[in-house]
Amino acid sequence: MANVIVGVTGGIAAYKAAELVSLLGKQGHAVRCIMTDAAQQFITPLTLQTLSGNPVYTSLFQIQESPEWQVEHIGLARWADCMLIVPATADFIGKVAHGFADDLLSTCVMAATAPVFFAPAMNDQMYANPLVQRNIAILRDAGYGFIDPVEGNLACGTSGKGKMASPQQIAAVLETLRKQDLQGMRIVVTAGPTREAVDPVRYITNHSSGKMGYAIARQAANRGADVVLVSGPSSQAVPANVTVVPVQSARDMFAAVQEQYSSADVVIKAAAVADYRPKTAAAQKIKKSDGDMVLELERNPDILAWLGEHKQNQILMGFAAETNDVQQNALGKLQRKHLDFIAANDVTQQHSGFGKDTNQITVYGADGSVTALPVLAKEDAADRLLDLVLQLYQARNK
Ligand code: C5P
C-alpha cells in the first residue's frame, strides 16, 4: 500500500477530495492532506483530518505545530509514493507549469520525486482556454500525470468538459503505479488518423482523435512496457516515456510499423487507417474549374493484414470501429487478418467512438473468448485491453 499525499486546491470539487481520502483509506493507503488557503474556503481541514486520520498541512510555516516533519515540504515530499492534486484549479496548474512555489502544496510538488497527478476541475470554457491547455501540455511534457475531467453538469450552471473525474477514477491511478507488470515487453501502438494527399494543400482523412491509442501507449508505459507509438496527426499530448514516430499517410505508417515489427512482442493497431488514397497526388494545388471533378482512389495496403501474414510470435490486437453488425464484422476481421484479439466498438453509440473520452468495447479473442467491457474512460479501457494481452503473453511464455 502506498503513502499518498492528497493536495487540495480551491475549487468547488474540493468536497470530492473528502470522498477520495475516505476511499484511499479504505483501500489501505496512508493518506496525508495538504490544503491551499483557497481550498479551506470550500471544506475544512477538520474534515480531511478526520477522514485521513492524520494532521492536515496548510502552511509552509507550520513547523512548530508538527515537529515531526522538520522542513515540512521536503519531509512530506519524501514521504509520498504518489501525490494527487484534487481538484487542480486552472490557477494551480498554471502556477506549477511555470515553476512557482509559494505555498506548501506547490513547494511539495516541486520537491516531489514520486509521481504527481493532477485532476483538473473547472468551468468548461476555462478548461478549453488555450492558456490552460498549454499549461497542461507543459506539465505532461515534464512527466506529470493527468486524470482528465469529464463532460457533465458544472457548478456554474452550465454543462461541458470540466467536471472532475470521479474519486474512483482518481484512486485507480495508484493501481497502475503499483503494477509494473508489462516490464520487458516491447509494445508497438498505432494511433490517430492518416492523411492521404490530394495535392500539396488538401488531403483525405477521418475523425480519429488518437485518444484511444494514446491512452493505450500511456498506460502501457506506466506499467513498464517499452512503448513505440506510431501516430498519425493528432493533437494528443505525447505520453511520458513513449517513443513517438510521427507519420502522415497509410504508407508512411506501414513503413514505420514494418520497421518495428521484428523487435515487437505486441502490436496494437488503434489507428484509423485510410483504406484508399488518391491515385495521384498532384504536385501543385489543383485549380477549380466550372465542372465537377472526379478523384480516382486506389487501395492502401492493409497494414494489419500484412502483420497477420508475417506474424512470428507477436501478439496482434486490431480495432474494429463499426456502425452496424459489430460482432459479425469484428469476427470477420479477427479471422481474415490472423489477429489474436479484436477490440470492437459501435461508433454510433453515445459513449463510444471518435473524439470521446469514454469507450465501450467488446474484445473477441482468437481462442473464442468474448470480453464485454462496460463504458469506461479510455485510460481504464486501455488497461483492460493490456490485461488481456498480458494474460496471453504470460501463457505463451510460461
Ligand atoms: O478493416 P478495418 O479498417 O475496419 O480494420 C480495422 C483494423 O485494421 C484497425 O486495427 C486498423 O488499424 C487496421 N487497418 C490497417 N491498415 C488498413 C486498414 C485498417 O492496419 N489499411
Q: What are the defining features of this structure?
A:
20 strands, globular, Rossmann fold, alpha/beta, 13 helices, six-stranded parallel beta sheet, binds cytidine-5'-monophosphate, 398 residues, 2 domains
Give the second-level CATH assignment, the architecture of the largest domain. Answer: 3-Layer(aba) Sandwich
Helix-strand makeup class? alpha/beta
Largest sheet: 8 strands, mixed
Give the end-to-end Cα distance, rounded to a whole number of Å.
28 Å
User: Can you give the mean pLDDT?
Assistant: 93
CATH superfamily of the largest domain: CoaB-like
Percent range of helical residues: 25-40%
Low-pLDDT segments, ≥5 res: none
Q: How much β-strand is present in the residues? A: 25-35%
CATH topology of the largest domain: Rossmann fold
The helix count comes to 13
Q: What's the number of extended β-strand segments?
A: 20
Outline the structure in words.
With 398 residues, this protein is of the alpha/beta class. The chain folds into two domains: 3-176, 3-Layer(aba) Sandwich (Rossmann fold); 186-396, Rossmann fold, CATH 3.40.50. The chain contains 13 helices and 20 strands. The protein has helices at 14-26, 45-52, 72-79, 90-97, 104-111, 124-128, 130-141, 167-178, 211-222, 250-261, 303-309, 326-336, 378-396; strands spanning 3-8, 30-35, 56-57, 82-88, 116-120, 145-146, 150-153, 159-163, 186-191, 196-199, 202-204, 226-231, 242-246, 266-269, 276-278, 297-299, 315-322, 341-346, 358-365, 370-377. The strands form five sheets. The protein has an eight-stranded mixed sheet, with helices on both faces. Strands 3-2-1-4-5-6 form a six-stranded parallel sheet, sandwiched between helices. β19 and β20 form a beta hairpin. α1 (14-26) runs parallel beside α2 (45-52). It starts with a strand and ends with a helix. 45% of the residues are buried. Bound molecules: cytidine-5'-monophosphate. Cytidine-5'-monophosphate (C5P) binds at residues 190, 250, 269, 271, 273, 275, 300, 302-304, 318-320, 333. Cytidine-5'-monophosphate binds at residues 190, 250, 269, 271, 273, 275, 300, 302-304, 318-320, 333.
